[in-house]
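[stage:ingest] chain + small molecule (zinc ion)
[stage:ingest] validated
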Amino acid sequence: MTELTRRGFASAIAGSVCSAGAIYGQSAEPWAGDSVVDCHHHMRSTPEASIAHLDGCRISNALFLTRDVGADRIRAIRAQYPGRFLGWFAATDITRPGAEEILTSAVKSGASGFGELKFHVEAAGPELRRMYALAAELSVPILIHFQEVPHTPAEGVFATGFRNFEAMLKAYPKTRFIGHADAFWANISADYANEAAYPAGKIKRGGVTDKLLGDYPNLYGDLSANSGNNALSRDPEFTPGFLDRHQDKLIFGSDCACSDGKGGGVSQANNPTAARVAGKCVARETLSLLKRTTSPAVFRKLAWDNAHQTYALKA
Ligand SMILES: [Zn+2]
Ligand SMILES: [Zn+2]
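[stage:predict] done
[stage:export] tokens:
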């Protein structure tokens, strides 16, 4: 979006929040008026549904995560809502032959990255290894859903083996890995042993995720979903230092599926283990947390700058 369009939108939403702020003394959406890009926005059934979420939670922009969606569709939506959708990530079933060709073609047509890749494979298995290599070759980031604890009996697990992911970071130094979901965030604590999808309580310092983010320049963290929000909420003494340490590596996203950006409908895909965010908009929850925990300069990195740098978004 042009700077003018972005500013115009920002001041429009800031203006509309002002009246509520005057009543309550403080805005209910202190990020309204800031540039914020939701980097974990799954493309919805209609562009209007996407816009309803963005407007409802006062977010200026989004990056689409798509699966088997053509570049033409994205182009049409971007033309319909100029400036709101800064780009798109492409995904397809990586366990099927032809996945590399499909993803290569998506990148050649303008996709900014791969993801999210959420499949019943091992993180160090051949299917994902092929994608790590391809992402490096095409110079795009790759967003992976790591989950070792099923939310329902039939769900299964995804990209398993995060605790040993260091070997992949070493083996593919030119790949920009974006970690996301349950296992990535639960391993923020050193004592995690796959006992729950979303562990609660104090964080034991020295967790795998904290260490890998610090040690490997090719690993980044996606703050989205109940998993990200839970990790940042469970130990308020831990969170400010964590956000400060990794202020150049963490990227805001919501992964929220609520209908109106205010918690209506279903926010986390009927996931029974994510009941803590039932009736809430995850975007709002996490933006509120980031606003009250970080400085304006760090908030800007998490909500905007890091995405632009890591994902090479055009805005
Ligand atoms: Zn996911
Ligand atoms: Zn929402």
